[in-house]
Design a protein that fits this description.
Blueprint (H helix, E strand, L loop, with lengths): L1 E7 L4 E7 L6 E3 L6 H7 L4 H8 L11 E3 L6 E6 L3 E13 L6 H7 L4 H7 L12 E14 L6 H5 L8 H10 L10 E2 L2 E2 L1 H11 L9 H7 L1 E3 L7 E4 L10 E7 L2 E6 L3 E6 L3 H4 L2 E6 L3
Antiparallel strand pairs: 1-6, 2-5, 3-4, 6-7, 8-9, 10-15, 11-12, 11-15, 12-13, 13-14
């Protein structure tokens, strides 16, 4: 399963900004700092901060000195770009077979029993043949600069051949029962974002393939959801992190690719999803 965390830097409009120093300004990295945090503090994009310091990655260290402005004084009139910080978490799973115990599975994957139970939020040692357990999890962070002075959706989505939401929902329902597959976006297997991409694409929309968190970032927030809007959830341990989505059908129902049951229709009012609901967004085609 692929999970993602999204964080925005504020896009501040700077008019007639003067950099008056004749020499480069520097900042000393403190514990807990990130490039995103430092770039925001000095009204820079992450890419600009990396360019100023010849950085090839987002890795920084405490007490490291970073250049935060160009050495030559100049007058600028510019708008700071908004950025999206996406944390991608990849998990490896194991399917329980006859004779397995949690202890045996934990030993096989170099885990303690407690670590295995924590990864899978288990309160007991009871498992069944066919259960799918998470046995490892890793994460990476990607920084994306969003376009200046344009809505991201305006350049990303276009109509083709008169598509409509009824068509999207019809295409989505055609693949009910398709199994879950991490990063999948075909009827051979879907993950949640791949399923949304496939349904809109089949209905005639020109839509880019993104993670659930990026669709959340690109969408327009709605308070009263309509058929075809996207509904977002935080199903992981951090209840503020978007990592699942589906297509809203109306009457509190939505269709999605569940990691345990594949493509199915569920209710947003079920105890599981109601407690994990983040909100609704509309893609501006």
């Amino acid at each position: 399963m692929k999970k993602s965390i999204v964080a925005f830097s504020a896009a501040a409009l700077l008019s007639g900004l003067f950099v008056s120093s004749a020499s480069a300004s520097t900042y000393t990295v403190k514990k807990g700092d990130t490039l995103t945090k430092i770039a925001k503090k000095y009204n820079l994009t992450v890419n600009k901060l990396k360019e100023l310091n010849n950085l090839k990655s987002n890795t920084i260290y405490a007490n490291q000195k970073l250049v935060t402005s160009a050495s030559k004084a100049k007058k600028e009139t510019t708008a700071a770009k908004a950025t999206v910080s996406i944390k991608n978490e990849k998990t490896t799973t194991y399917k329980v077979v006859a004779g397995d115990t949690l202890t045996k599975i934990a030993n096989k994957h170099n885990l303690t029993l407690g670590e295995l139970k924590q990864l899978n939020k288990l309160s007991s040692n009871v498992i069944k043949v066919g259960d799918t357990l998470i046995v490892s999890s890793s994460s990476t962070e990607t920084i994306i600069d969003l376009p200046e002075e344009t809505k991201p959706s305006a350049n990303t989505y276009e109509k083709e051949n008169g598509p409509n939401i009824d068509k999207v929902i019809a295409e989505a329902k055609k693949v009910i029962g398709t199994p879950y597959s991490w990063a999948g976006s075909t009827p051979a297997g879907f993950d949640c974002s791949g399923f949304v991409y496939y349904a809109f694409k089949q209905a005639g929309y020109s839509i880019s393939r993104h993670s659930s968190s990026t669709y959340y970032a690109l969408g327009k927030k709605v308070s009263s959801p309509q058929r075809g809007d996207l509904v977002f959830f935080a199903t992981g341990s951090n209840r503020s992190v978007v990592n699942h989505l589906g297509i809203y059908l109306g009457d509190n129902q939505f269709i999605h690719a569940s990691s345990s049951k594949g493509v199915m229709i569920s209710s947003v009012n079920s105890s599981y999803y109601k407690s994990r609901l983040i909100g609704y967004k509309k893609l501006d085609f």
